[in-house]
Amino acid sequence: MNLVKWLLLIVGAAYFYYWFKGKERTAQTDRARVEAETQKQNVEPQTMVQCELCHVHLAQSEAIKQEQRFYCSAQHLQALDDAGWLGSALWRPSPNQDARPDGCMPELVVMHHISLPPGEFQKRISTQHIIDFFQNTLDTSAHPYFAEIDGQKVSSHFLISRQGQVFQFVSAKQRAWHAGVSEFLGRERCNDFSIGIEMEGDGDSPFEAIQYQQLTTLIQNIETAFPNLQFAGHSDIAPQRKTDPGKFFDWAKLQKTTLIPEKNFPFGFDSR
Fold first, then answer.
1. E-assigned strands of 77-157?
2. Do both 152 and 171 map to the same domain?
3. Which of 77, 148, 192, 251 could bond to 87 as cystine, CB 3.0-4.6 Å?
4. Active-site residue set
């Protein structure tokens, strides 16, 4: 029995010795890997990028990336830059734009709705059709309705898709071609002094909750750059031609979520 005990003790001691040595080798390997990575970081400089808004340089690993652009903070991502572009939006520049008249800046937001083809906004391809339409690249053979609008040169500053994506087509400082012949409280040519926002949808269906959420954020971001904006629908400024954003657009909800003063909604909050 004593011999068995001694054998067990020897085996146990040997096991413990090799286990301890294994742990020690693992720890040494980990330390060596960390040291190698540290040395590599010290030798290889990090890629530097520039904030699109403030132009400060920072390591790419510390920046917020939006498409191929970089921002140093969430605040700068949600701001309009000096050129009038919103960092958090998906930029899809439209050729259908020009300069505002001298000294003319945004004073009005015009709400629209759009669906291409009409009534088919439930299909994800509708959003791309709108983008193509505003960029003059719409395939007119893709749907019979597209032949009817072939050659039209229109745009809007922003589009909010059914999934809540925010696209920007024209700088807020430039004139987008969205209002057409129009009048706001006796003042004609609303394109000169307005920002156009399209909600993907039609006049026969409610808009999505995510669209209102994104609209609230978008307007708050715009108001930071252009305070005291007024609000109207396309039907308010072109009542003989247009019906958008339609009876399902919730004006009261927009005012409540944005906290815009009621006086800035001269046409009221009733559906129309």
1. 90-91, 97-99, 108-114
2. yes
3. 77
4. 198
